[in-house]
């Protein structure tokens, strides 16, 4: 590679929905560990089309040839990592009691008010667990300057109607974290919560940030002169993964895919009008076939 040549810096985006409930912070930590151990980007080549891959997932076999290799989220291209979603970390380890309702933050409170949301942010499980080294190792988060994103009453359309339900502690469940390196830095500009949708009890969050998509690679020049020894390599170095990749990740991924297809099929049949029509049609067709077969055998 020529001196001064630019190389692309990859970006990895992970969407996650971790375990719910106030007391399940340790399960959420384990969910993060599972992401690091089993979210692998395969480098093996495939010989069949995508349809064959789907069929192989159902049958429990693999369409890959050769040795199965892959990179985890901490080594995928040695670039940027963004983790976003309903991470579900709460502001208490127990559900609120009636006496706690008076401590819920007031969305209209001034920063000096004891009911300002910043007081509750001090109890945030994600910040606590990350500082203890239990989750999201090496990842960063822009400063939080918005109210809790969960749990709101459904049906509210305007900000004056946004109210927290009393069955859950108001919490910053929805988060965006990121990871760069010494030479691939993330510069956050704005981190905020979006308006509440009437059909949701969450407020989604958004992050505006700047990243460098190309880095300068120091290397031998076309003149044959070696680069100076004090020239720092500009290729981003991968962060150390807190957990090793699970050696059995491929089998576990196939199992998860099969379960996903089964659950998705059942949800389609039971929760959608189109699926229910198919289900009713199959039941009627099955009963009709049974009565026809019974009448033929009784003749």
UniProtKB/TrEMBL annotation:
A Pfam family assignment: Exo_endo_phos2
GO molecular function terms noted in the UniProt entry: phosphatidylinositol-4,5-bisphosphate 5-phosphatase activity
Region (Disordered): 46-70, 223-246
GO annotation, biological process: phosphatidylinositol dephosphorylation
Superkingdom classification of source: Eukaryota
Skewed-composition ranges (Low complexity): 226-244
Residues of the Inositol polyphosphate-related phosphatase domain: 11-206
Name recorded for this polypeptide: Inositol polyphosphate-related phosphatase domain-containing protein
Species per Swiss-Prot/TrEMBL record: Aspergillus lentulus
